[in-house]
Amino acid sequence: MFNKLKQIKDLRSQAKTMQSALAQEIVTIEKSGVTVKMNGNMEVLSVVVAEGTSKSTMENGAKDAFNDAVKKMQKIMAQKVQEMGGFPGLS
Q: Rounded to an integer, what distance in angstroms lies between the CA atom of residue 38 and that of residue 18?
């Protein structure tokens, strides 16, 4: 039983280390005059809309930029987790 508790504690510690490392990652995506900046905690850090961008272009650009930022960050996260050895015991 104590061995299982130690494994859980180790996994929790490893997850916190990974989360800290991922928080340092930042992606910036620009689509149709909209620039989105996101960190590894999937928090949007900034959204900038270029002057003169029409409403419809801005709406589509924002949607595309957010979606691309999430996809790019997910790929970075998967790569980082793999580089850090993944989560042993969860496979």
A: 17
Closest CA to 45 of 16, 20, 73: 73
Other CB atoms within 10 A of residue 65 CB: 25
Answer whether residue 75 is part of any domain.
yes
CA gap 5, 7 in Å, rounded: 5
Residue type, 9: K
User: For 17-76, what is each residue's pLDDT tens digit?
Assistant: 878 888 889 999 999 999 999 999 899 999 999 999 999 999 999 999 999 999 999 999
Number of domains in the chain: 1
Positive or negative, the Cα torsion across 10, 15, 16, 20? positive
Query: With a threshold of 0.90, does the pTM exceed it?
Result: no
Q: Does residue 12 lie within any of the structural domains? A: yes
Nearest to 73 by CA among 47, 37, 48, 46: 37
